[in-house]
Design goal:
This protein has helices at 24-27, 42-55, 72-78, 93-100, 138-143, 164-178, and strands at 2-9, 14-21, 33-37, 58-62, 87-90, 105-108, 114-115, 126-129, 148-150. With 185 residues, it is α/β, with parallel strands linked by helices. The protein has one domain (2-178): Alpha/beta knot, CATH 3.40.1280. It has a seven-stranded parallel sheet. Helix 2 runs parallel beside helix 3 (72-78) and helix 2 (42-55) runs parallel beside helix 6 (164-178). It is globular, with a radius of gyration of 16 Å.
């Protein structure tokens, strides 16, 4: 089982790729897995990477990405937390699902029928978020209505959704709260 791990090299100011082997048992040791499917805005992903590093959660990025992993806005938003981030990049949603499809997953969406606080997040669960402009694919949500969760928002149709990095923080911290904030002080 291979994963891509990105680390920030202060000397060259670039994000480097290195490959490590991880056992399934080690991979299940993360409190949660945050999965961004085709993220488009580097600053959002940078902010989310910082949140994942601070909570010990693993970040998965599903390609295609709307930016380069070397993007300066991505690095700036992640600050100096890149050395503490465990990041796995997947070629496609299909390849991600092929590898992790047997795991407990939640699908964050504005179209979810379940409020994000009304489910139980088991430690090690995967929480998927879609791209900023479209969200997660409709067929994926239709296949998992019981775990399609939403953050309540106002009813004004001109106000579509929260910022992606805010949504990730809201849902992730609820999952962490339900599990006694594992590994956090």
């Amino acid at each position: 089982m291979e994963k891509k791990k990105y680390k920030h090299n202060a000397a060259s100011d670039r994000i480097l790729t290195c490959t490590d082997h991880v056992t399934e048992e080690a991979d299940r040791s993360y409190p949660f897995h945050i999965v961004l499917v085709e993220p488009e805005i580097p600053a959002n992903t940078g902010n989310i990477s910082r949140t994942c590093a601070l909570t010990g959660s693993k970040l998965h990025l599903v390609e295609p990405l709307g930016f380069s992993i070397d993007d300066r806005m991505l690095k700036r938003a992640g600050l100096d937390y890149w050395d503490h981030l465990d990041l796995e990049v997947h070629d496609s949603l299909d390849s991600f699902l092929k590898k992790y499809g047997d795991r407990k997953m939640f699908f964050a969406t504005t179209h979810g029928s379940v409020i994000y606080t009304d489910v139980h997040y088991e430690k090690g669960s995967f929480i998927l978020f879609g791209k900023e402009t479209r969200g997660l694919p409709g067929e994926l949500l239709a296949a998992h209505p019981e775990t399609a969760v939403r953050v309540p928002m106002g009813k004004d149709p001109d106000l579509r959704s929260l910022n992606l990095s805010n949504s990730v923080s809201i849902v992730l911290y609820e999952a962490l709260r339900q599990n006694g904030f594992p590994g956090l002080k």
